[in-house]
């Protein structure tokens, strides 16, 4: 499979209301299946939102709770589904994304490596410890969550391991929407990879979320992009174009890791008295 039909479910996550959120996801899953989609991507922490003070009560293992209900949806509709929920890592709550297969299996889990202090993740959650690359039917796919987007090292590592696609789920605020859009394009352009990013929309506790979920091609150009309202985006993505872009501009062949890993030669400038500046 080189061409994959992807649906992105952008919606307003209801804080501490898993029943309502699951009903929303179930409706989107049914519609994605009706559109013939292969993959459905959901927002970050779509089950409970950022009710992290109660994370320990919500968090389950990846074969229980909302994870199990999502697996059943994937099986019912014959979809791959990706999004994050409150999982458990070493007995503690974690922001854990799962990729479910059309047979309802958990193909992979990824716990968010970079915890976002501005939303108190570091106070309530334990960080992930590893990057996760999935050999999916459409191509090698790197998994990431929201704040990870600010760390290009993670995405370059994925690309060096052969990733052609990045899946990102998020709850990115409206106030930093320009960062969201810029960083997504940067990750696509610098790694010559397809970026599939699902952000939530709506407002919770005075914080408005930016939406603008998007699928970017390996040139960093949008194939399809949402606005700020709930929507199910759907796009056909030809993963074979990644190889064509990498042949056109051979960035990976022209890398100089010997220089990057060597000592940096630092030069101190002198002021008008001929003394080194601090």
Automatic annotation (TrEMBL):
<dbReference type="InterPro" id="IPR001110">
    <property type="entry name" value="UPF0012_CS"/>
</dbReference>
<dbReference type="InterPro" id="IPR003010">
    <property type="entry name" value="C-N_Hydrolase"/>
</dbReference>
<dbReference type="InterPro" id="IPR036526">
    <property type="entry name" value="C-N_Hydrolase_sf"/>
</dbReference>
<dbReference type="Pfam" id="PF00795">
    <property type="entry name" value="CN_hydrolase"/>
</dbReference>
<protein>
    <submittedName>
        <fullName>Carbon-nitrogen hydrolase family protein</fullName>
    </submittedName>
</protein>
<comment type="similarity">
    <text>Belongs to the carbon-nitrogen hydrolase superfamily. NIT1/NIT2 family.</text>
</comment>
<keyword id="KW-0378">Hydrolase</keyword>
<feature type="domain" description="CN hydrolase">
    <location>
        <begin position="4"/>
        <end position="239"/>
    </location>
</feature>
<dbReference type="GO" id="GO:0016787">
    <property type="term" value="F:hydrolase activity"/>
</dbReference>
């Amino acid at each position: 499979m080189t061409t994959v039909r992807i649906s992105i479910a952008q919606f307003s996550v209801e804080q501490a209301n898993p029943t309502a959120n699951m009903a929303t996801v179930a409706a989107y899953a049914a519609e994605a299946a009706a559109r013939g989609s292969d993959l459905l991507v959901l927002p970050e922490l779509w089950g409970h939102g950022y009710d992290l003070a109660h994370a320990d009560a919500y968090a389950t293992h990846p074969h229980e709770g909302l994870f199990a209900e999502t697996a059943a949806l994937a099986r019912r509709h014959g979809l791959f589904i990706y999004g994050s929920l409150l999982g458990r890592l070493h007995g503690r709550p974690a922001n854990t994304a799962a990729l479910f297969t059309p047979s309802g299996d958990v193909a992979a889990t990824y716990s968010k490596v970079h915890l976002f202090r501005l939303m108190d993740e570091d106070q309530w959650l334990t960080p992930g410890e590893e990057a996760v690359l999935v050999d999916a039917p459409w191509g090698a796919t790197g998994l990431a969550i929201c704040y990870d987007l600010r760390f290009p090292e993670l995405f370059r590592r994925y690309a060096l391991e052969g990733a052609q696609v990045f899946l990102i789920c998020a709850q990115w605020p409206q106030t930093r929407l320009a960062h969201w859009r810029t960083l997504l394009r940067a990750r696509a352009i610098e790694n010559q990879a397809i970026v599939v990013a699902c952000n939530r929309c709506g407002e919770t506790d005075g914080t408005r979320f930016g939406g603008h979920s998007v699928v970017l091609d390996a040139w960093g150009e949008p194939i399809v992009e949402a606005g700020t309202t709930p929507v199910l985006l759907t796009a056909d993505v030809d993963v074979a174009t990644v190889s064509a872009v990498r042949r056109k501009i051979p960035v990976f062949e022209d890398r100089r890791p010997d220089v990057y890993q060597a000592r940096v030669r630092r030069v101190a400038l002198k002021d008008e008295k001929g003394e080194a500046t601090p």
